[in-house]
Design goal:
Keywords: Metal-binding, Zinc
Cofactor: Zn(2+)
Number of strands: 8
Mean pLDDT: 96
Pfam families: F_bP_aldolase (PF01116)
Strand order of the largest sheet: 1-2-3-4-5-6-7-8
Shape: globular
Organism: Lachnoanaerobaculum umeaense
Binding site for Zn(2+) 2: 106, 136
Number of domains: 1
Number of helices: 11
CATH superfamily: Aldolase class I
Order of helices and strands: HEHEHHEHEHEHEHEHEHH
Bound molecules: zinc ion
CATH topology: TIM Barrel
Structural class: alpha/beta
Radius of gyration: 18 Å
Low-confidence stretches: none
CATH architecture: Alpha-Beta Barrel
Amino acid sequence: MYEKTKNLLKLAKERNTAVIAFICMDYIMARSVVYAAEKTNTPAIIMLYPEHVSIQHTAGLSNFATMVKELANEVIVPIGLHADHDYSYEAVVKTMDAGFDSIMIDGSMYSLEKNISITKEVVSKAHSMDICVEGEVGHVGLAGESDNSKEDLYTRPEVAKQFCEATKVDALAVSIGNAHGEYKSIPKLDIKRLEEIHEAIDTPLVLHGGSGIPDDQLLIAFSRGINKFNLGTEFLRRYYSAVEEYIDINKHNLDPVKIIDLPQYIQSKLQPYLEERLRTLCRF
Ligand SMILES: [Zn+2]
């Protein structure tokens, strides 16, 4: 059942757990998430990375939103929709107009003043349309650059408080030892810092760069204010492996129509992985 992401964040906060937002670039990824959520009776969010539309053209913006709503309504469990990192007011307005009820404006690469002013402008527009806004303060960088161990990029509790009071965001992405992409070594979350941020603000917190953080650390983080958890890299890697396997299995079959069975094969490989993630990490 389609549900606004705002309500899923509220539910996750009440249950002191996190809802997982899975990066999906196409129908089969989204379908795998919806049916894994149904099987485990656990809410989930389908998340679009807007550059997958503007650069890789894996889907269209509004047809992605329509597709998720249609898929979500095939099941009983609540499924949300969210757009990940947009970097400008113009881009985010386009995303909101395309039917997303939850978006992210990421001004974390700018000065705090500029980040606050861009985010505030987006929140004002979004709230007039009953759309939920995620902001970011501190900066979640790249795991490949070992940004997860650069403390100067981490979110400072007093800055998080200032940012949330000034912008009125509905969710806040934090940098606490996490980063995007493949980690070079096992990351270590700064739980003490997370606790301080959680104490300073009431806003649901979001953890980006979820692939490769050990589960024990994740479960602690989810009990200390992380209410949304973004998972992309690991999911995409599983997709790639499933395509490789399918090609390997069928390499002696020269019938080109064989391709029509690819999506279902991929779902059969992705869904168990997603079910395991939802069962292990979520406490709804
Ligand atoms: Zn991110």
